[in-house]
């Protein structure tokens, strides 16, 4: 696939990495939705996944580990005409950035969060991540991971997140469709992408996922929160993919702008003398 | 005429209500007011007090000795009676004294009197009435103040408050014969009253700030409250973040997207922000951060004052990058410095840190007129050759800054070391060039920084920074009255140290560096950068501001020629 989102930057991922599928799906989604590069901002954190923005020709803010969501929220607030996507790995979004993730569920900013969930730390070479399964063995956890794994989808649905989906990087076409649904959703959309780490995760491999994943049937109703919660709890032999939960509610930006009733913040100026004279009266 | 009132009680008794009303009524009566708050980190109980000083000439520091002590409880009497001047007045919950005390005692049970009016909630207004009675102030202004503040609660409440005010005055009438301020009344002129936090917020409004994100932390919370109160009028996004890390990252995101953005906190929150400070520096995203200092380390004394963060903010975050550090001396200057901070943050694409403290944040100052000299100045970059180089290596170190979505330029910002296009790089010679590009800005930044407030003195020179200017100025005036020729060098733009600062110190006599910290952080900075010794230092770190009389004594002691 060749399109205007192609970047000339050399890709630093391992050959066969699950990240490639996410990159192709995201590029495809942006192309098919006919966005132009300057309308899009990709915000990321740190980790192998967080390098992705460099490989797409769009606006990029590659910030700190775990901190992509606050940055993305603010960009969207200042200039709502931009399409703002925060993307990073499971360690970045659910570990270092866990607090920001939690509060994004409450605020409902109109951004899409794509998490490359490979259940392991790649860039620091193989330690357990928040989504690693209990017993996962690594150099840092030679006795096996003693914590249970975080279920980001259940967490998000329990907090009434606006849009919750899971994709698989081994199926680029279906992942692209899920990402398109997320990008066109008005409100916070989470796409947790199962993404095998070919170097450090010998448990959750391509084959392991392929045996287990299945797509939600067409008759599935993502508006049913309890059903969605049940689906999100499925893990092990059968792992559901697709849009698991949807609930349209006012966004963070809707609420901010309904309060300030002004044009987009980016275009807002002040009348200095008027402001000063108004304020001086208030302090007399 | 120069009178100092102290109102004390336990938290929840309305100490700040009384002092707030007094400050406004006195200011509207045509007096200059200076007030400070001293309170504990609790909602009820304990002891808190405020000092309200007022005069027919500008006053800008807190005094130790008190003319009128208002005791909302007996503890106030015990704690502060030693500070009452000979011939001064104490009213409220006073105790019987053995023998003849050197001050006048007016025992009043504000609550009981309030109950007679109808409800003990009027106790504060009774106290205000008593104070105004002693001062002999015109009641029209106080009545108007009550109407403004209670109108929304209905006519009946307004009337009850007015009655309470009058009852307070009637109670003190038997005790005095003439007004304490008679003969010193000023011509009525409009005066403004504002505190440090309001001034910092007002500075942000006037800068065209479009985005403020913060996590509540004493003593910086007033800025958040102030900007929230103005968000609707002027169209500002104000968000209470989940933590300070989020607060600073939001501000950086907003700035990247083209808004003027600020965040504010105290030292503990600034610790969490230091990661973000480095991000602003590396991505060259303009950012203004207020650190309202309080004593530490760690949680320290949440409601007290300190100048202990200077060395911290000079070095906060790992490795090196240029930054401005400012510290306003009083609210009027705070307004101007915030506007300057926004302008310089954008001009140089660097973080600007404004050091306030609890003393400045909470102290109220009056002005005949606010002088706002600075104007927001937004640098305009019009054309961006494509492909756009966000980090174009330029002679000044500053690269033309595009805003995402406003042109065809794709804006790539990276916290990793990056190339001119913003893409991460491991090319170490490019790293050297990029680091030099960022550091190079400091050379021109130095030229921007203004010289400190300066007055020459033959005998000694009082040196300080930030909120201590008022007390240093008054101590200098008192020294001069005593025949000691004292000069002043006082910094509100601290870092980078301005050019020609060496010359200023070159012909300075006996500098005494006065700071609210243990180590003498400004003195250390000056010694390190100027290679001059600053052995004479006065340091206080008890969480309270310097009081005029105490500082005067210390200066005389330290400044003595051996």
Walkthrough of the structure:
The complex is a heterodimer of chains A (284) and B (562). Chain A is 34% helix and 16% strand. By secondary structure, chain A is of the alpha/beta class. Chain A has a single domain (19-282), classed as Thiamin diphosphate (ThDP)-binding fold, Pyr/PP domains (Rossmann fold), CATH 3.40.50.970. An eight-stranded mixed sheet of chain A has the order 2-1-3-4-6-5-8-7, sandwiched between helices. Chain A is globular, with a radius of gyration of 20 Å. The relative contact order of chain A is 0.14. Chain B has 562 residues and is α/β, with parallel strands linked by helices. Chain B folds into four domains: 2-190, Pyruvate-ferredoxin Oxidoreductase, domain 3 (3-Layer(aba) Sandwich); 194-367, Thiamin diphosphate (ThDP)-binding fold, Pyr/PP domains (Rossmann fold); 384-448, no CATH class; 453-559, Rossmann fold (3-Layer(aba) Sandwich). Chain B is 39% helix and 20% strand. The longest helix of chain B has 21 residues, at 428-448. The interface between A and B is large, with 53 and 64 residues. Strand 2 (59-62) of chain A pairs parallel with strand 15 of chain B.
Structure summary:
Chain A has 284 residues and is of the alpha/beta class.
Helix/strand-derived category of chain A reads alpha/beta
CATH architecture group name of the largest domain in chain B: 3-Layer(aba) Sandwich
Sheet bearing the most strands of chain A, described?
Answer: 8 strands, mixed
Strand order in the sheet with the most strands of chain A: 2-1-3-4-6-5-8-7
The CATH superfamily of chain A turns out to be: Thiamin diphosphate (ThDP)-binding fold, Pyr/PP domains
CATH class term of the largest domain in chain B: Alpha Beta
CATH fold-level topology of the largest domain in chain B: Pyruvate-ferredoxin Oxidoreductase, domain 3
Work out the radius of gyration of chain A.
Answer: 20 Å
Order of helices and strands of chain A: HEEHEHHEHEHEHEHEHH
What's the overall geometry of chain A?
A: globular
Helix fraction bin of chain A: 25-40%
Share of residues in helices of chain B: 25-40%
Overall mean pLDDT of chain B stands at 94
Largest interface: A-B, 53 and 64 residues
């Amino acid at each position: 696939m060749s399109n205007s989102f192609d970047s000339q930057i050399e890709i630093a991922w391992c050959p066969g990495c699950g990240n490639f599928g996410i990159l192709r799906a995201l590029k495809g989604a942006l192309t098919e939705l006919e966005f132009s590069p300057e309308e899009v901002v990709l915000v990321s954190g740190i980790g192998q996944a967080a390098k992705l923005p460099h490989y797409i020709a769009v606006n990029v803010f590659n910030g700190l580990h775990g901190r992509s969501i606050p940055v993305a929220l603010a960009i969207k607030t200042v200039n709502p005409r931009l399409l703002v996507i925060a993307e990073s790995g499971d360690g970045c979004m659910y570990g270092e950035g866990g607090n920001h993730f939690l509060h994004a569920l409450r605020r409902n900013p109109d951004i899409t969060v794509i998490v490359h969930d490979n259940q392991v730390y790649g860039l620091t070479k193989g330690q357990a991540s928040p989504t690693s399964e209990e017993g996962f063995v690594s150099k840092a956890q030679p006795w096996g991971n003693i914590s249970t794994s975080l279920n980001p989808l259940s967490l998000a649905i329990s907090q009434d997140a606006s849009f919750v989906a899971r994709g698989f990087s081994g199926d680029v076409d279906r992942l692209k469709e899920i990402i398109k649904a997320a990008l066109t959703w008005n409100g916070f959309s989470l796409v947790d992408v199962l993404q095998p780490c070919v170097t450090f995760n010998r448990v959750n491999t391509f084959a392991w996922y392929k045996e287990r994943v299945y797509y939600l049937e067409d008759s599935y109703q993502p508006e049913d929160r309890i059903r969605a919660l049940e689906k999100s709890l499925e893990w092990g032999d059968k792992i559901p993919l697709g849009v698991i939960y949807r609930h349209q509610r006012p966004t963070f930006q809707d609420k901010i702008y309904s309060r300030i009733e002004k044009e987009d913040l980016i275009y807002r100026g002040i009348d200095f003398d008027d402001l000063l004279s108004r304020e001086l009266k208030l302090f007399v | 005429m120069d009178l100092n009132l102290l109102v004390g009680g336990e938290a929840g008794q309305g100490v700040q209500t009384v002092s707030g009303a007094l400050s406004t009524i006195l200011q509207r009566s045509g007096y200059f007011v200076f007030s400070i708050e001293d309170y504990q980190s609790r909602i009820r109980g304990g002891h808190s007090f405020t000092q309200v000083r007022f005069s027919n000439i500008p006053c800008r520091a807190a005094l130790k000795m008190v003319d009128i002590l208002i005791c909302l409880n007996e503890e106030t009497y015990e704690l502060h009676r030693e500070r009452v001047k000979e011939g001064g007045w104490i009213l409220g919950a006073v105790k019987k004294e053995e023998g003849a005390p050197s001050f006048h005692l007016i025992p009043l049970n504000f609550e009981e009197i309030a109950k007679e009016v109808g409800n003990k909630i009027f106790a504060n207004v009774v106290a205000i009435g008593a104070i105004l009675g002693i001062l002999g102030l015109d009641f029209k202004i106080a009545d108007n103040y009550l109407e403004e503040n209670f109108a929304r609660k209905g006519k009946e409440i307004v009337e009850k408050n007015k009655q309470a005010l009058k009852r307070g005055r009637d109670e003190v009438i038997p005790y005095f014969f003439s007004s304490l301020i008679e003969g010193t009344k000023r011509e009525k002129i409009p005066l403004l009253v504002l505190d440090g936090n309001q001034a910092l917020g007002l500075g942000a409004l006037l800068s065209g700030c479009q985005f403020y994100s913060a996590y509540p932390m004493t003593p910086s919370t007033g800025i958040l409250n102030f900007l929230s109160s103005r968000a609707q009028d002027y169209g500002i996004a104000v968000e209470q973040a989940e933590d300070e890390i989020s607060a600073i990252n939001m501000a950086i995101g907003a700035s990247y997207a083209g808004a003027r953005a600020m965040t504010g906190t105290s030292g503990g929150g600034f610790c969490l922000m230091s990661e973000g400070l480095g991000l602003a520096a590396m991505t060259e995203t303009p950012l203004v951060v207020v650190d309202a200092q309080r004593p530490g380390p760690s949680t320290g004394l949440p409601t007290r004052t300190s100048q202990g963060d200077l060395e911290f903010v000079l070095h906060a975050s790992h490795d090196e990058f240029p930054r401005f550090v400012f510290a306003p001396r009083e609210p009027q200057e705070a307004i101007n410095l915030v506007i300057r901070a926004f302008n310089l943050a954008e001009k140089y694409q660097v973080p600007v840190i404004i050091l306030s403290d609890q003393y400045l944040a909470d102290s109220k100052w009056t002005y005949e007129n606010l002088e706002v000299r600075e104007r927001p100045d937004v640098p305009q970059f019009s054309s961006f050759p494509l492909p756009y180089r966000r980090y174009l290596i330029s002679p000044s170190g500053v690269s033309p800054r595009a805003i995402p979505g406003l042109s065809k330029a794709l804006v790539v910002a990276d916290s990793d070391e990056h190339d001119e296009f913003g893409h991460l790089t491991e090319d170490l010679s490019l790293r050297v060039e990029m680091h030099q590009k960022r550091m190079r800005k400091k050379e021109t930044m130095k030229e921007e920084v203004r010289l400190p407030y300066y007055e020459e003195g033959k005998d000694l020179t009082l040196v300080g920074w930030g909120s201590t200017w008022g007390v240093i100025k008054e101590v200098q005036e008192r020294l001069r009255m005593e025949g000691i020729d004292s000069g002043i060098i006082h910094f509100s733009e601290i870092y980078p140290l301005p050019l020609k600062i060496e010359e200023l110190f070159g012909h300075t006599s006996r500098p005494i560096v006065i700071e609210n910290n243990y180590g003498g952080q400004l003195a250390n900075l000056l010694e390190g950068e100027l290679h001059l010794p600053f052995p004479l230092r006065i340091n206080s770190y008890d969480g309270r501001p310097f009081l005029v009389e105490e500082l005067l004594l210390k200066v005389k002691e330290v400044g003595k020629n051996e």
